[in-house]
Every structure is written in structure tokens, then in C-alpha cells.
Amino acid sequence: MIGLTEATEIAPSYRDEIEFQADLTLQRLRPRLHEVWEATQTDSTLQELFDERLQEFWRPLFRRLISLYGTRYDFFYHCEQILETCARSFADRSAELRESDRRRVIEPDWFQSEQIVGGALYVDLFSENLCKLREHVAYFKELGLTYLHLMPLFAVRPGNNDGGYAISNYRSVDPSLGTVEDLRLLADELREAGINLVLDFVFNHTADDHEWAMRAQAGQREYQEYYYMFPDRDIPEQYERNLREIFPTVRRGNFTWHEGTRRWVWTTFNSFQWDLNYGNPAVFRSMLDELLFIANLGVDILRLDAVAFVWKRMGTNCENLPEAHELIQAFNYATRIAAPGLVFKSEAIVHPDEVVKYIDIGECQISYNPTLMALLWESLATRRTSLLTRTLARRFSLPVGTSWVNYLRCHDDIGWTFDDGDAWSIGINAYDHRQFLNRFYTGQFDGSFARGVPFQENELTGDMRISGTMASLAGLEKAIEEEDEWGKELSIRRMMLLHGITLSIGGIPLLYMGEEWGMLNDYDFVRDPAKAGDSRWIHRPKMRWEYLEELDEDVARDSVRRRIYRSLQKMIAIRKSNRALAGQEMKLIGCDNSHLLSYIRQCDGSRLVVIGNFSEEEQSINGNILRTAGLGRFFVNLLDDTEFSTSQPIHLDPYALLWLKSV
Fold first, then answer.
1. How many CB atoms lie within 10 A of CB 385?
2. Catalytic one among 290, 305, 413, 516?
3. pLDDT tens-digit map of 499-556
4. Name one Pfam family in it (predicted).
5. Beta partners for 610?
6. Which of 347, 412, 413, 515 does the annotation list as catalytic?
7. How far apart are CA 370 and CA 158, in angstroms?
8. Which among 249, 274, 281, 247 is positioned nearest to 260, based on CA atoms?
């Protein structure tokens, strides 16, 4: 089997052979396309458009397919099925989505615009259902959002479903949220409002009550081969020697005994989430069909869940394997043919060096940036930016045409995913530092302002992650409990500092809805038996629509929530009016002050200097540094219109943030 590296560095003669095989295969399969066009009544103009895309993307798609599946006896059959799947999905795509495809082929970097600002939410917690969510499109526009990520909303198993990540049916919305038609109508309204729709594609596993899993349980061997199922512990034990446990406090090992089939089933995450066997090309074809169905609902971006785990190979830890990249690339090239306006977003909460490997215009065009998220919180705890700047200098740049998604909180926990070598290089013991951060953000460290709670605490290894809302982690919960007005002020400044960094550092800023109101931990989740065992529900609070009343200054003049909302709304508007904040290019500025983070953003002749103070003490930066970095002598802070001269040191109040433009 040809690996990803070899496939890109093979000898010209071998490349010519693969291209010959690709062209000959397509020539033989073309008659099947005529059948699709006749069945779908696709006109000749669209047929020509599809053919143009085949000419561009069939060879790279075929190269990945033959690398992954070329030794299979049924390889040619699956090539035929994959081509037909692409053609049918293309034919089913609406005129509006085809027009969106056309624009995005012309402007493939559309998601790098300064206009893109995201929000993420659970439909039931935010608005009960999809119909009511449509009533709040104006709310998203007023806040300034142009990207809306709806957490998993497809049909799930009853009871515990891992927050929606145990999918029972990719073509049916959870009945409590609405219908597929409701989702399609929402997508249409969002498109009209200029808001891009983002959904999850949970493709590493299905729920144990998915149709394929149920057929496997009924003894159908064809569907048993959709999963990893073993009659005894012999092979699972061989795999287990190299596998890590994802949820060790919930269950041990990566395999679950299924009494009905009398087999061990591979379940990386929860016992009810059955890992798909992508070594079987039928699984790839079937999941491609599901992916393109979702795309045709009007989705602009698909978040690919748990990308690191999708390929298994004996003798490895079955994470981040070369075949996983080839698999995602195959999905990507098939999508370029059928729905080229769609963008992939990777979710890889792994080592920073592995995260970046998924980011490429031919794989995942955008990716979560878990390392930035973790290190922004690390800098707040230590009041120093040394580890943050060290990491940014080495690990922030991305391939041309790609982008980070920068976030501060999400539905998931916080894991301290910095590189141990980066920590050691500046004198930090990585293990001890993670222990300090865990103590700090659970409020167990003397002087901590945080009110997080442990997630998956392992007393044997000392491993732990952190749950909690942004506001509770930043000190607002503690300050309210203690009626500490200065504490409230500092907590708001911390939140706006972090928002100001994600909105300006380069990439797509993403809010977890509720952050715009400074919502606190929701401890009532323990009353629900389906949620009580998962502390992540503490930072998934229900939207309180009565908060909007506080936007009226006469009603709530001293409202903390109103201040947070208006400050964030203003910051988003300023971002969207400043071309310097487009794209991904970012250059750090050395300022000889470890409490400060400073960098330059520039695009199309527009230039902005950003400086943030991560300390509760006043800090300063030499004015000459600003002059040489910003190429000017006088600057204005876009966030509050304060003017600065570089003839004097620039002073920053506790947790102050400056977006400085030369005047």
C-alpha cells in the first residue's frame, strides 16, 4: 500500500502509471454516468460542468482510493459506486447551492475574510428547536456573526448519546429538534442573511442503534464488516498493547463485549459508539453518500469529528496514521467534484505537530486551534506569555489558503495540549505545569480566580481536563459570590482580552454562545441522569432570553451582562471594518516584557499592531518598538479611540488590550 508521503514523492514513471489507470478506469465507468443523467434529467450544461470537475479531481481522488483500497478484490466496483454517488449528489444539488459553488471556486479563500465571525450552540439549549432558531437569525446578525455552528442535531440513540455524537441516522433530525425540512429552511434563511451554516460530520463511529449496526447485530456479515468485530480477545489484546484510553474513568480499554452478537466491538469513545472500519471501501462509499446528503441541505462547512482515530493498523496507537490523511483527502476530492463550495474543518485534539498535518487545501481547509485556546488560559493563570509566544513562533503558520478557527471555550473540555519540548526550552516542567494549571482552574491553587471543575480526573496518572464556562474560568463567578466589585472588573477585562486576541490574531474567531452574556457554570446538569456523569454539561447552559432586556441602559444601567455583550459586539464590528484582520498572516513583536503579547496583522496594505497585557498590574512597552513595528509615530487604539505617541513608553492597564493603527 502506498502511503501519503510516497504518493506525493513517487517516481514519474509510477505516477504516469497511476494516471493511466485513473484515466482508463474513468473511461470504462463513463457509461454509468449516462444512466445517472437520464434518471435525474440533468441537462447537458450541468453534465459538462461535472465533466470539467472530473477532469481536475478524478486523478487525485483515484490515487487516494487505489492507495487505500487497490488490493481489494472489489476495488473497481467501489470506484463505480463512488463515481455514481458523486454524480447523483451533484444532480440533486439546488440551483442556489450550485451558484454558491461557482462563487467559491472563483474565491476559494472566502473563509479568510475579516467578515467571518462564528458562533456555536446546541439548538435545544439555545432555542428549543430549529423552527424557533429561525426566529433568532436577526439576533445573530445584530451580534455580528456570519458563521453559525449547530452542535450535533441528527437522530441519536436514546439516553446517553455523548452530547449528540452517537448518530443513529445521518438523514433524520432528532425529532425533538424538528425535521430535515426544518433544517433546510433554516439553511436557506441563514444564507439569505449572509450567515454560513456549519454542522458536524461524526464519521469515526455510529451509534449502536444505527441501521448498519442493527444489521450487524442481526448477523448480516456484510454489515459486520462495517465495524471491527471479533469473536474473542485475541486480536483486541494485540491492538490494546499500543492504544490509549480516551475515557479511562468511564470504562477501561477500547473494545466492548456485545452479548447479542457474541463479539467484541471496537469502541474508542463510549461503549455505544461503534468505530467504523474504513479498511472496507463500502464504508467509505456509504459515508461519502451521507456526507454529500448533508452538504446538499445547504451546509457551508463540515466539522470532521475525531479525525485522528479514523484508521486502524496493528502495532500502532491507531492515531494520526498516514492512511487517515489519505482517507480525508479522498473525501475532499470527491467533494470537489460534487459540492466544491463545501469546506472541511478538522477536529484533532492531539499534539500540536499532529494537528497541523490535517490542514491543507486538499484535506481540511480550516482547523480548530486547541493549542492557542489552552495557552491563552495558561497565560492568564501564570500572568506570563512566554510559553504562548514560544508556541506561536513555531506553530501558528499554516499552508496558503487555509485558516485556524480560534476559540476560547467550546462544548468540550480544556486539555493542556502544549508541546513538552516548548515548555522545557523555557525552563518549564511540563508535567508539573499541567498539574498547576489543573489546580488553578479548579480553584484549588491559592489566589486562583477560576471556578472550573475536573473532567476525566485519573488519580492513578494525575491526568485531568477542565470543564467550565468562560466567565466562571475568568473569575466572574468567584467575584459575584464574594461581592467583589474589583474582581468583577478584572474578570470582564480578562474575557475581553481573550476575545480581542481570538478576533485579531489571524483566522476565524468562534464564540461558544453564552459567552456574549458572560454566562456562569450551570450546576443543575447533575439533576439529569443522562448528563450527571459528564461534567462538560456544566459549561453548556440554557440560553436566557430575558438577558436581552438588560441591553436597555435605563433598565439595567450597571449590568455586567450588558457591558460584556456591548463590548464584544463593538469589537466584532471593528474587526469586520479592518482589512488588516483578514487572512492568517501574523508576526510576533519582541517587546522584552513577558507579561505582554504583541503582534502585527497586515493585509492588502492595511496594518494593525495588537498588544495585550496578561497581568493584573500595569505594564509598559517601549514606544520605539511600536514605531518600528507599526511604521508610524502616532497611533490610535481602535477599541476606545485613545491616541498614543511613540516618543514615550506605552502604558497598559491591567488586562488591557490595544488594537493600534497608525494615524
1. 26
2. 305
3. 999 999 999 999 999 999 999 999 999 999 989 989 999 999 999 999 999 998 777 6
4. Alpha-amylase
5. 599, 659
6. 347
7. 30
8. 274
